[in-house]
C-alpha cells in the first residue's frame, strides 16, 4: 500500500480508538465496518502490521490481533509473503484451518450456489395456507384505516397478542413489555447495540446459533463459551450479557430441563446480568408441549426473551420480538426508531392473526418436522453408520459428528457432490467442534434421501474408501 492509500485509510479510520475496550477490538470493529460497507473492496491490500501500527501510534500486537480477528471472521486473508487483503465476496462455505469459518448461513443467503442442496439455511420454504389467509385478513383491515404506520415498538394488535401469548405460558406480560422487530436476528442486533460495548464480554453456549455469534462479534464483544454449570463463576466477572437457547437448541435440538432453567434465571437475578433466552424454535418441540420461557422462573427483570415466527411459519415472514421489562423495551424502541422508524405494518397484523391460530399452525409444522427428522435419522444410520448424533428433541436440525478428519475440509468435498453443509466451528465462539456439522431436516423425504446419498458418496471420497464408489439412482 503506497503512502497516498495509507493516508486515505488513516482518514477512513477516523476516531477509531474513541470507544471503550481493548484497542485491537476497536480497530477491528472500524475495519470491519469499512469492509462490510464496501468502502474497502474485495482484494484491497491492507498496510503491513508494522506500518499501520507506526501510523496509528500503537503497538504492532494491536494491529496483528485486529487482523487475526478479521481473518477468523472471514473478512481478510493473510498469507506469508503476500500480506493482508480484504477477502473476496465469493468465499467457499468453509474456511481452512487458519481460522473460524465464516457463517455459512450468511454466505449462502448472500451468494447461493447453483444446483446444490443447501443444508446450511434452516428455515421453512413452504409457507402454510394459514399465512395467506392471515395476510388477506390483514389487508381487509386496511380499509378506512387512519394511521401513520410509524410504530417503533410495534403494532398495538401484535403487542397485545404477544402479551397474551406469554401470559398463557405462565409469564404475565403487558403490551408495554413487548417490542416487535424485523425477525429475531434484528432483535439480537438491537440488544447488542444497546447492551454491548466494544471489549465487553458476552457469554454463550457452545455450540450455539452462529447468527448470534455474528451479532456479538460485530459489536466488537469478546465472546466466551459457558456451560450452565459454569455460569455462576462466569457471571462474577460481570459480562455484558449471557445468551442461551434452552428450547430446541440450534444446532442440536436439545431441550433444557426445568431445574436448569430455574437455576439460570436465579443466577441472572443474583448477579444482575441480562440473560437472553432465544425462543425462536421453542414451539417446535416434538413432544407437542412448549416448556416455560426462562423469564417464567425469574426473580427480577434480567431475563430477556427473543422470539419470531420465521421457523414456525415461514422464513420470509420477518416478524420477531423482544419480551423484556418495560423500561428496556422503551430504550430499544428509541434505538429502533433511529434505524427505520418501525416495522412493516401488514406483516405485523398478519402475525397477530397467526397467533390466534397458533395451535393449528404448530401442530401441522411439528407433525411434518417430526416425520422428516425420523427420516433423516434413519437415512444417516443406514448410509453413514460411522457418523454419530443424538436425535433432536425439537427444532429443525441435528448435530452430527464424523469419526475422523474435520468438517471444514469435508464440506468442500460435499459441495462438489452437490450438498452444502455448515461446519461445526461456525457454531463455536472459539472455533472448536471441527469434527461436527449441523444438518437440517426441512426438505421433503425424497430430497433428504438424495442429500444423504450424496453425503455418503462425498464421505467415501473424503475418507479414501470411495475408489469404487459410483453414483446411482435412488428409488424412494
UniProtKB/TrEMBL annotation:
InterPro entries, per the entry: Aminotransferase_I/II_large (IPR004839), HTH_trans_reg/aminotransferase (IPR051446), PyrdxlP-dep_Trfase (IPR015424), PyrdxlP-dep_Trfase_major (IPR015421), Tscrpt_reg_HTH_GntR (IPR000524), WH-like_DNA-bd_sf (IPR036388), WH_DNA-bd_sf (IPR036390)
Domain of life, source organism: Bacteria
Sequence ranges assigned to domain HTH gntR-type in this UniProt record: 21-89
UniProt keyword terms in alphabetical order: Aminotransferase, DNA-binding, Pyridoxal phosphate, Transcription, Transcription regulation, Transferase
SMART domains: HTH_GNTR
CDD domains according to UniProt: AAT_like, WHTH_GntR
Molecular function GO terms recorded: transaminase activity
Family as reported in the entry's similarity comment: In the C-terminal section; belongs to the class-I pyridoxal-phosphate-dependent aminotransferase family.
Protein name: PLP-dependent aminotransferase family protein
Organism encoding this protein: Actinomadura luzonensis
Amino acid at each position: 500500500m503506497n503512502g497516498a492509500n495509507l493516508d486515505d485509510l488513516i482518514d477512513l479510520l477516523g476516531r477509531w480508538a474513541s470507544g471503550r475496550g481493548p484497542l485491537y477490538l476497536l480497530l477491528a470493529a472500524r475495519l470491519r465496518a469499512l469492509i462490510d460497507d464496501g468502502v474497502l473492496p474485495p482484494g484491497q491490500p491492507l498496510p503491513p502490521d508494522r506500518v499501520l501500527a507506526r501510523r496509528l501510534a500503537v503497538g504492532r500486537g494491536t494491529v496483528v490481533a485486529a487482523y487475526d480477528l478479521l481473518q477468523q471472521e472471514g473478512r481478510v486473508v493473510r498469507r506469508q509473503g503476500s500480506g493482508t487483503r480484504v477477502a473476496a465476496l465469493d468465499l467457499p462455505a468453509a474456511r481452512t484451518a487458519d481460522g473460524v469459518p465464516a457463517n455459512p448461513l450468511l454466505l449462502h443467503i448472500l451468494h447461493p450456489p447453483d444446483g446444490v442442496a443447501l443444508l446450511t439455511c434452516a428455515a421453512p420454504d413452504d409457507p402454510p395456507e394459514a399465512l395467506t389467509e392471515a395476510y388477506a385478513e390483514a389487508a381487509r383491515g386496511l380499509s378506512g384505516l387512519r394511521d401513520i404506520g410509524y410504530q417503533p415498538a410495534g403494532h398495538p394488535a401484535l403487542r397485545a397478542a404477544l402479551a397474551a401469548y406469554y401470559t398463557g405460558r405462565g409469564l404475565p406480560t403487558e403490551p408495554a413489555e413487548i417490542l416487535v422487530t424485523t425477525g429475531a436476528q434484528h432483535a439480537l442486533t438491537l440488544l447488542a447495540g444497546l447492551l454491548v460495548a466494544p471489549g465487553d464480554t458476552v457469554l454463550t453456549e457452545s455450540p450455539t446459533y452462529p447468527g448470534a455469534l455474528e451479532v456479538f462479534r460485530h459489536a466488537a464483544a469478546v465472546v466466551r463459551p459457558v456451560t450452565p454449570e459454569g455460569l455462576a463463576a462466569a457471571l462474577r466477572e460481570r459480562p455484558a450479557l449471557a445468551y442461551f437457547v434452552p428450547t430446541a437448541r440450534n444446532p442440536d435440538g436439545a431441550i433444557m430441563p426445568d431445574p436448569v432453567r430455574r437455576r439460570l434465571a436465579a443466577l441472572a437475578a443474583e448477579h444482575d446480568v441480562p440473560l437472553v433466552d432465544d425462543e425462536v424454535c421453542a414451539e417446535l418441540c416434538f413432544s407437542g408441549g412448549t416448556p416455560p420461557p426462562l423469564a417464567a422462573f425469574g426473580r427480577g427483570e434480567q431475563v430477556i426473551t427473543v422470539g419470531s415466527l420465521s421457523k414456525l411459519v415461514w422464513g420470509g415472514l420477518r416478524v420477531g420480538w423482544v419480551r423484556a421489562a418495560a423500561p428496556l423495551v422503551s430504550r430499544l424502541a428509541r434505538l429502533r426508531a433511529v434505524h427505520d422508524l418501525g416495522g412493516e405494518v401488514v406483516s405485523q397484523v398478519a402475525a397477530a392473526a397467526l397467533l390466534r391460530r397458533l395451535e393449528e399452525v404448530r401442530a401441522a409444522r411439528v407433525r411434518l418436522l417430526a416425520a422428516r427428522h425420523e427420516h433423516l435419522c434413519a437415512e444417516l444410520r443406514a448410509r453413514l453408520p460411522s457418523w454419530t448424533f443424538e436425535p433432536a428433541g425439537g427444532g429443525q436440525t441435528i448435530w452430527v459428528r464424523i469419526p475422523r478428519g474435520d468438517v471444514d475440509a469435508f464440506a468442500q468435498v460435499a459441495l462438489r457432490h452437490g450438498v452444502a453443509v455448515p461446519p461445526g466451528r461456525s457454531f463455536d465462539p472459539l472455533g472448536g467442534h471441527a469434527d461436527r456439522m449441523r444438518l437440517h431436516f426441512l426438505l421433503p423425504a425424497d430430497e433428504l434421501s438424495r442429500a444423504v446419498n450424496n453425503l455418503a458418496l462425498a464421505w467415501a471420497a473424503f475418507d479414501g474408501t470411495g475408489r469404487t464408489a459410483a453414483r446411482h439412482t435412488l428409488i424412494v
